[in-house]
Amino acid sequence: MMQSALARLTLGLLWLVHWLPLGTQAALGRGLGALLFRFGRGRRRIARRNLELCFPQLGAAEREALLREHFACLGRSFLERGLLWYASPDRLKRLIHVEGDVGLAERSDRPVMWLVPHFMALDVAGAATQLFQNRQVGSIYQAQSNPVFDTAMRRGRLRYGRARVFERHDSGALPLVRAIRKEGVAFFNLPDMDFGRKETVFAPFFGIPASTLLAPSRMARSLKMIVQPVVAEMLPGGQGWRVRFLEPWTHWPTEDAAADAATMNAWIEEEIRRLPAQYLWVHRRFKTRPEGQAKLYGSP
Q: Which pick of 46, 146, 165, 228 has the fewest CB atoms within 10 Å?
């Protein structure tokens, strides 16, 4: 009961804040990020460890500054979600700056897979695929533990009428595959989290073996999909967001799904180096280890 009341209060605050100019929201979000940094001990520890593993060439002071900036972006991403859930489509179109061929999926005779890494503006990319083109969009959805937030998130992501979500469970991919085959749904694919050992391979990520899904390559190959990478980023202050629809990959997928996983990780790593503070460092990307290798995060 208390959690539901707190969730409703938080959603009410998000709704109120979304009326403010984006520059004001960005400043408030950075302040929220400072609070998350101070009091979010567990997530701070995970993010700090990830930066140690992925940027060993940086000095301790540089990594700490990067860590603080990451939490500022994290605070922004949470607060600005109110805009994505409640603002008018016209306002969002003014704030989302699209680069590249956003209409590829709409025109294509072949199904399209968007590869979208976990940057802080990830949900902005999802909005862009619905606001700037007319092809139906499908994505895998992880239900939220809080039912109030779960309802709000589903409503926010589906409110344009061009998206469908498929639950993340053992049979969740089958309805999605049918929708791609029969209805031409474009797949908004988030390929860069640690989902354990099932249907994965350990592929290098910043030089560290990381459990990486084989499904993106296998699905793209079996369904003869066009694969288009997409990267979303926050712009400073009240400038909004940039969503880059990059050139489709002509070299991917191949017949070697494990090699494709390594190629995908190398591309994501390259994009992270462009925007190091905006990647989702609070996720335990290296949680699953190869047999015989020590855990990298220690005890909570």
A: 146
Please confirm whether the linkage preceding 253 is cis (ω < 30° from 0).
Answer: yes
- 126 falls within a domain: yes
CA distance 224 to 187: 13
The pTM (predicted TM-score) of the whole model is 0.94
Q: Which amino acid makes up residue 192?
A: D
pLDDT at 1: 66
* Inside any domain, residue 297: no
Which residues partner with 233 through β-bridges?
242
Blockwise average pLDDT, block size 10, the chain, 300 residues? 82 95 96 96 97 97 98 96 96 97 96 97 96 94 84 90 80 83 94 92 97 96 97 94 98 97 98 98 96 84
Rg (CA), the chain: 19
- 59 in any annotated domain: yes
Residue count of the chain: 300
Query: What number of other Cβ atoms are within 10 A of residue 252's Cβ?
Result: 18
**299 falls within a domain:** no
Q: How many domains does the chain have?
A: 1
Tokens describing residue 110: 């072949």
CB–CB of 231/271 below 8 Å?
A: yes
Two tokens, residue 271: 């994009």
Scanning the structure block, which residue is given the tokens 């897979």?
113
The residue behind tokens 């797949």 is 187
Pairing mode of beta strands 112-115, 186-189: parallel
Domain of 209 in residue numbering reads as 2-278
